[in-house]
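Holo prediction. Input below; ligand is uracil.
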Amino acid sequence: MKKRLDNLIANAGIATRSEAKKLIRGKRITADGKVVTDPAAKFDPEETKLEFDGSPLRIRDYVYLMMNKPAGVVCATEDNVFSTVCDLLPEEYQSFAPYPVGRLDKDTEGFVLLSNDGDLAHRVISPKHHVPKRYYAKIEGTVTEQHKELFQKGVTLEDGYVTMPAQLFLLSADEIELIIYEGKFHQVKRMFEAVGCKVTYLKRLEIGPLVLDKTLALGEIRELSDQELELLKSVL
Ligand code: URA
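Structure of the complex:
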């Protein structure tokens, strides 16, 4: 498919879109050996050999990002009131137009995957694939060994829905980790409400085989490594 040259350069990971325009105007980019100076010129990278200072460009279609989402930010591409996870994207990723794969509540922190690969996003979210998600939570109320069994069997939410088996781990009197295999609206909070407790803090730690990078501060983003991406694809 033909795309604007400045977007293609930005998608090669060597420059942001505005830097790409400068490289193009600076005569650093060639298409089939000829210098191109118009950032809006369109090319199909499958058909045209694009080079930067004489070296071939590796142009990618997709980007896969791990974000440590802060509280107060919504998992959406746009919002009239609140900041979104997409507002936090560094400029170099904006031309890919990635979006959050699954949602965390506004007050939930932790691992959000962002991508523009619709097929992968669908498979991560689809209940058919049962991709596990691990959460850490602080709980008001008493969580006991009994709750482990209840969550393993499935609890009945206030709307009558019975949850799929989930694994509960007690860390201390008021801290737990929970692995769920589905993603109903407010699922973790509603599961605890169903057993008379309240989630006061929630953070997602893992999506399938991927673990939130502990070196990412709240609001920070990095690309998945090739290994992480392969690992994720191997479970979908
Ligand atoms: N469950 C919730 O209740 N909230 C989230 O953000 C994610 C899972």
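The first strand starts at residue 3 and ends at 4. That is the main takeaway for now.
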